[in-house]
Amino acid sequence: MTTTYDTASSTEVPDGREGEDLDESLRNIEQAVRSAQRAFQEIGRCNQLLDAAQQSGDETIRELEALLLHREHAAVPALLDRLDGIAAEVARSEADRTVVSRILFGEDNEPDDDVEEWEVPRLTADGLPRIPTVHDVEDPGDSTLEDMWERDRELATRQYEVRRERTRLAGDHLRTVIARTVDSFGTPASTTVLLVEAHRAYALWTSCIR
To answer: Which of 194, 190, 187 is nearest to 95 (CA)?
Structure first.
């Protein structure tokens, strides 16, 4: 008896086109994995930059407290410039984070540019105690020279106390605004508004100590 063997394989072997499609699929998967890795690395970079900004901001607050204590107003603008620079760098980084998050997670929401009023403390000269003048001193009419000197002395003392209180309130406001600025670094829209108020607060504080 002669046995005849079937030369065809019982399983189909992929032809050249199918093999190329498989290689292309593998390359696409590999490219997607690498893109995801780069995206997560970018998010990690954004996180590191934000952490560094917070640390630098906290150091700025400590420096500011020393300047406020000693009324060294001339050194404060350098601190504000530093915060401006940090905020600009963080804003660019957070914009990159938004793009990467959209690619990774399909998040299409843009950062909220609305800043609630309560987020930005306000203070103007009108909100500070008014410095008394000679018109606020009651004149009894007939008085001795000694009485006039006493009234002048009391007025000068009161003016000194009010000026100190105005300086304290303005300094506290400046400190509060800058602290909130540092806390807001992750939301650039809030940071921008707070920095504007910080510059105003510095001008107000300076006017109180001069």
So the answer is: 187
Residue 102 Cα to chain centre, angstroms? 23
pLDDT digits (tens, 9 = 90+) for 118-134: 689 999 999 999 999 98
Name the more confident of 33 and 5. 33
Cα–Cα distance list, 143 to 132, 135, 149, 156 (Å)? 21, 16, 10, 19
95-111: average pLDDT: 78
Chain centre distance of CA 61: 12
pTM of the model: 0.79
**What dihedral angle (degrees, nearest 10) is formed by the CA atoms of 187, 193, 195, 196?**
170
Of 53, 74, 79, the closest CA to residue 64 belongs to 79
Instruction: Quote the CA–CA distance of 13 and 8 in Å, as a whole number.
Output: 10
Q: Which long-range contacts (CB under 8 A, 24 or more apart) does 71-75 make?
A: 71/167, 71/209, 73/202, 73/205, 73/206, 73/209, 73/210
